[in-house]
Amino acid sequence: MTNRELEMTGLHEQEKQLEVAEANRQQLINDLRQSIAELESCTSQDPPRTSSELDGQLRGVKSDLRVVSEDMRDIETQQTDLMAEERQQRARKEQAEQKLAQLNNVRHQRMQILAQGDKDTYEAIQWLASHRDIFQKEVYDPVLVLLDVKQPQAARAIESCLNWNIQRTFVCQCRADYDLLTRELIDKRGWRLNVVELEGGRSLDSYTPPMSVDELHTIGFDDYAIDFVDAPADVLRFLCHAAHFHLIPIALRGQADPEQVERSGQFQRYIIGHTLFTTVVSKYGKRLPVTQSRDLKPLRNFAYSAQSEARERAQSELHALAESFAEMEERKRRLKSVYDGHAQRYRQLVETRDRLVEKQRDAHRLVTEWRKAQAVLEAERQKLAREEARPPMAAQRRQISEQRRKHAVELGKLAERLVRTLASLMQAREACDNLVLKSLTYATQLNRCTEAVRERQSALRDAHHALEQTLVTFTQAKEDTLACKRRYEQRMDECDDTLRETFREHYADDTESVDQLEVQLNSAQAALDIPWGVGANVVEAFRARKAKVAELKEAIHAARIEQSQAEAAIQRVEVRCFLTQNLWLPALEALIGNVNERFSAAFQRRSPLLIQVLVAQVKFGFRAMKTTRSGESTFWSSFGTRSSSNCSLDSVNRAVYVLF
């Protein structure tokens, strides 16, 4: 039925689509005719032509552009050559400035002196500059490199106080650095070097002059030699130790009197002006002082004006380079001016060329648009011809109508078969309702079986509880009996022989308790200490007690057997209860659910009010609910209580009767 309806709906949709397609076709034909009319009006005139005058002007402008471009490239080449020449001149200027700076650099001058006078020391300084990180402490360069003379006037006097060996000596702060330096440079490389180490020597403060500075000024001296130089403290320590800089006063202006200095006897060497005085005290006779004097050596190593000719050459070269730079700047300015003129002319030509190209492009665009309109017109005409040649859609619509008629006939036949099927289905449902009513009887019987199983479980639990209480009572009685026996034995041990004999006679007459005889026998046997054994009455009592003990053992054995049987019965009942809970109760729940479904189906068919009945199992009872079609009266009714032991089909029927 559903497929037929879908086919009918599809045919109806196809018919609508055909109508829409026909309307679109007519609209397309009208649009094509209107478009063709517009295109014919646009292409009715002759096609536009390109101007040959524009082509001539464009060729002339392009020729001028090539000439200006070549001139600009020539100027750019000249500028490039000029920049290359400028770079070369700048490199020469940097070299000259660097050379002049080196000539003006005191350290560089002194390094050059070492390079000429002591090549090993010069290379050692370069090696030390690259390997200072391998030493523990500072290793100082030679004195000639590190020493800084504070006043240029004192340079000649300071140099006279230092011989060549002192000037080229390396100073180490510790013994380990001394060993490492000598091993690397002297032992391995074989260089001839002077190296000293000052570890553990005197401090700089311990080298005190013989006279204070104020007193020194009073006799005409300016300062000690140590005050005219600047160097690290360890290097100054070395100068005090090796050259006695703290003991040599210097008078730069020559105001000191040599005789007065000689009479003071404080100094062995001192410098006044450009003269070095040395005073020696005779070791023989009257020990008179003898003073010798000599002129200071010309200034060589500590000079500030050495290599003056090289400095003048460097300065003249810098001056010539400056003039060359000025000339190149003027050339660059002229080239830039010419280049800017050509660039302006080039921009003007480019603008003219662009305008001509735009005009030419507009002319070509008009021609292209005319040709494109011709092509579009031809395509529209062909499309209109194809649309007009298409057959009409009336035949397709007739075919769809015929298919719809056939489907309508088939739907009528299908409806007749459906009516007959519904009649047979009603009969089948009536038979099903009868089967449901029969199944309620089986549900009632199953409920009764469930209640019987529950009662049996309750009885078994009561029996199991009583048996456990009996065992507890028996165990307590046995413990009490054993306690009485131990107490009796203790008392018999404590009593005397007369009391034991009296109790034995009394116990021989008393045969009511076998347990008492056993206790008396044990106490009597424990008390008697005779070699000929026990009496006949004691033996009889012991036999009777033994028989009673055997009887009690049999009773206990029988009770244990009965206990085992009871436990086995309890275990079987528990197994049955487990099976009932896991097998029968789920089946009962399923049956009740099936009954609810059948009830609902039956009452929906038979009741005009469409009343829904729901029966649910509650523990020890059932619960029913009624819902009408309008939904206005919905309530729950419970039948049976938790304490009731039977809830049969009659209860269910009664619940249904109350609901309806």
Structural class based on helices, strands and sheet pairing: alpha+beta
Residues in helix, %? 55-70%
Q: What is the string of SSEs from the N terminus onward? A: HHHHEHEHHEHEHEEHEHEEEHHHHHEEEH
Number of helices: 17
Radius of gyration from CA coordinates: 70 Å
Distance between the termini: 38 Å
Give me the count of strands: 13
Outline, from the CA principal axes?
flat
Proportion of residues in extended strands: 5-15%
Region (Disordered): 383-402
Coiled coil: 11-38, 79-106, 311-338
Keywords: Coiled coil
Organism: Malassezia obtusa
Task: Please characterize this protein's 3D structure.
By secondary structure, this protein is an alpha+beta fold. It is 70% helix and 9% strand. It has a 5-stranded mixed sheet. Strand 11 and strand 12 (621-627) form a beta hairpin. Helix 1 (2-42) packs across helix 12, helix 3 crosses helix 4 (119-130) and helix 14 packs antiparallel against helix 15. The relative contact order is 0.07. Mean pLDDT is 76; it is low at 528-534, 607-622, 628-649 and 655-660. This is Structural maintenance of chromosomes protein 5. Residues 383-402 are annotated as: Disordered.
